[in-house]
Amino acid sequence: MEKDVRIIEVKRSIFENNDKDAERLRAELKEKRVFLLNLMSSPGSGKTTTLLALARALEGRIKMGVMEADIDSAVDAEKMAEAGVKSIQIHTGGMCHLDADMTRQGLYEFGMEDAELIVLENVGNLVCPAEFDTGAVKNMTILSVPEGDDKPLKYPLMYEKCDLLVVNKTDVLPYFDFDRKKVEEYAKRRNPDIEILYISAKTGEGIGELADWIVEQARAWRA
Amino acid sequence: MEKDVRIIEVKRSIFENNDKDAERLRAELKEKRVFLLNLMSSPGSGKTTTLLALARALEGRIKMGVMEADIDSAVDAEKMAEAGVKSIQIHTGGMCHLDADMTRQGLYEFGMEDAELIVLENVGNLVCPAEFDTGAVKNMTILSVPEGDDKPLKYPLMYEKCDLLVVNKTDVLPYFDFDRKKVEEYAKRRNPDIEILYISAKTGEGIGELADWIVEQARAWRA
Fold first, then answer.
1. Quick one: which H or E segment has residue A86?
2. Is the distance from CB of B207 to CB of B46 less than 8 angstroms?
């Protein structure tokens, strides 16, 4: 089952002040010119499929790596490795989120020397990951159409903390009651500055725009 | 926005040993002949829609009430109230789960006098709610088809703790890669005794069987 994938069991953070530790990690990323993107969502919203589509779209534009965080299994890192994307699997030891020190453990194991863009695929969870600054430069959340347009009402902090909301699975819009105007209104109520993109990781719709957004953000950070 | 819905802000538990406290609550439920069912899932898997369909199917068979737990908003309890189901909204104060004492606070506010079946709709989250015994008699989890068949691999404790796995949104099976054999194999790997039912809360498929399962469990408990 577990192919040639590196699995890291991260340890619980020893730092009391995660916010300060996250600032330290961001400073280190700045110095090393690594753009770290923290990707959060519910389980099953399509994080891994989106990253696979992005890896194709970003080829030749930016060197991308992925850290897959899960409580158990290595299915996501295996998919990445099969697609030729440099990746590691982080196991959180049952924890529902990653903090800055856990992220650092992953980054050191991954190796930051020649990375330009590293995506941290956080544990599938709309609550806890939003409460902990991982040290990432930008935060992005995926909401898939089948989950419904009311999620920003129920999970406010996630939308408050994110720079980008990506609505995924637009290919199944005809089969679900999902109101684009409503989701935009609810998300902006939590965070007026949030940017919103629509994609279908399955068909590739909107992946080009998402790739452009990431390249633009990474360029600004690494300048 | 917030119609005629009772909203309870529960307080963090003062009990150190949640497992013991959950046992105490279960004993009280037994004495009062109330069947408490803890319903867990990812955000957007269809918990509320399933409960609305169940309310119709259970009418005249058992007196059902619902406690909706969310971090914010009252959209779920409002939907229940509109459908004529006795319900309250529990706000967790940012917490990602409910423990036994928080559940007790909800139950006392709801009133257990003439209740036969109370469903606790837990916070949408596959991680934390599985870690805390709420005092419920049975635990049930919903996995919706769009989330994918690999969830039991990634969120093992949820499937270990649940008596029943309900696979929802079977009406969209043609549009997603979802393997029934795989999900059954993965779920039973975590918990050989787990029962599995397939439903579409939208079309009503399988709701009768689910209603029968609940009535049967409630009857055994209240005997």
1. strand A86-91
2. no
Q: Let me know if A24 is exposed, middle or buried by CB neighbors in 10 A (0-12, 13-18, 19+).
A: middle
**Based on the number of CB atoms within 10 Å of its own CB, is B174 exposed (0-12), middle (13-18) or buried (19 or more)?**
exposed
The verdict on B93 touching A (C-beta cutoff 8 Å) is no
The answer on pLDDT for B200 being more than 90 is yes
- Residue in A closest to B69 by C-alpha: A154
List Cα–Cα distances, A177 to A149, A170, A181, B74, B182, in angstroms: 8, 12, 12, 19, 28
> CB distance from B175 to chain A under 8 Å?
yes
Q: Which residues of A touch B175 (CB under 8 A)?
A: 171-172, 175
What pTM, to 2 d.p., does this model score?
0.92
pLDDT band at A39 (very low <50, low <70, confident <90, very high): very high
A86-120 confidence digits (pLDDT tens): 999 999 988 899 999 999 999 999 999 888 999 99
pLDDT at B1: 41
B73 and A147: CB-CB below 8 Å? no
ipTM metric: 0.88
Closest chain A C-alpha to B153 CA, distance in angstroms: 6
Whether the Cβ atoms of residue A119 and residue A39 lie closer than 8 Å to each other? yes
Q: A150, B73: Cβ pair inside 8 Å? A: yes
Closest by CA position to B158, among listed A30, A114, A123, A58: A123
B144-172 residue pLDDT tens: 999 999 999 999 999 999 999 999 999 99
Interface test with B, best of A96, A158, A179 (most B CBs within 10 A): A96
Out of A44, A72, A172, name the one closest to residue B147 (CB). A44
Instruction: Give A107→chain B minimum CA distance, Å.
Output: 21
Q: B64 forms bridges with which residues in the sheet?
A: B117
* Residue of B49, B143, B154, B157 to mutate when probing chain A, most A C-beta within 10 A: B154
In tens, the pLDDT along A56-66 reads 999 999 999 99
